[in-house]
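Consider the tokenized backbone below.
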């Protein structure tokens, strides 16, 4: 019995010594956590900065493989690649905080990006084009026109004039009986064109009546509350 209790005490002592970064790694990659073995392309990492800022914020752990194995960063160049991504390839500049962690003789660089209320943050897409990204599970994807419109309307100091029109009534009624709707479906049930549908959906998102979610890499809309 003494040996058994002694074993439990040792296990608890070991558990208490677990580094907070190791606890994070055990969660696996998700919407607010991304692992990078190394950073060798500032343009690509800029998309992750944009996605985190436009969604719920998040952390990059550099020096960690996709499977969670800590390899450590190999040089200070990793930090400068992130800095270049922020300063040169995001608009407006996505700010971040960086923390170096020494874990069992290896260094992990933690990059934290806070969620922003002044969206969108864009990143270089190709050539001289900049586009906004969102974070979905452990991937980045392009924000659509409706999200961009909603973000723009949220920043409008004049506010939003929302009319409860027939299409809006049909939309809200539909969402009473269905969990979500996409743009094409809304156009069909309300007998309206894409332009009108996009404006209505973005109005409802900007007023926090609807929110988006992603199903099979397609953006749909659902009621809040």
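A designed sequence for it:
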């Amino acid at each position: 019995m003494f040996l058994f209790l002694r074993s439990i005490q040792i296990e608890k002592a070991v558990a208490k010594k677990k580094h907070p970064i190791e606890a994070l790694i055990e969660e696996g990659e998700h919407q607010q956590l991304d692992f990078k073995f190394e950073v060798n392309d500032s343009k690509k990492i800029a998309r992750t900065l944009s996605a985190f800022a436009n969604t719920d914020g998040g952390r990059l752990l550099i020096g960690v493989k996709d499977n969670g194995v800590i390899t450590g960063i190999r040089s200070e160049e990793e930090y400068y690649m992130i800095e270049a991504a922020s300063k040169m390839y995001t608009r407006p500049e996505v700010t971040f905080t960086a923390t170096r962690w020494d874990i069992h003789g290896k260094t992990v660089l933690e990059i934290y990006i806070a969620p922003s209320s002044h969206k969108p943050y864009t990143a270089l897409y190709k050539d001289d084009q900049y586009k906004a990204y969102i974070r979905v599970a452990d991937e980045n994807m392009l924000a659509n026109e409706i999200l961009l419109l909603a973000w723009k309307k949220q920043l409008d100091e004049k506010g939003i004039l929302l009319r409860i029109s027939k299409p809006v009534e049909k939309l809200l009624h539909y969402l009473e009986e269905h969990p979500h709707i996409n743009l094409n479906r809304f156009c069909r049930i309300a007998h309206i064109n894409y332009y009108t549908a996009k404006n209505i959906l973005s109005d409802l998102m900007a007023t926090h009546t609807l929110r988006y979610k992603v199903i099979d890499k397609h953006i749909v809309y659902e009621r809040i509350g």
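The chain has two domains: 2-142, 145-223.
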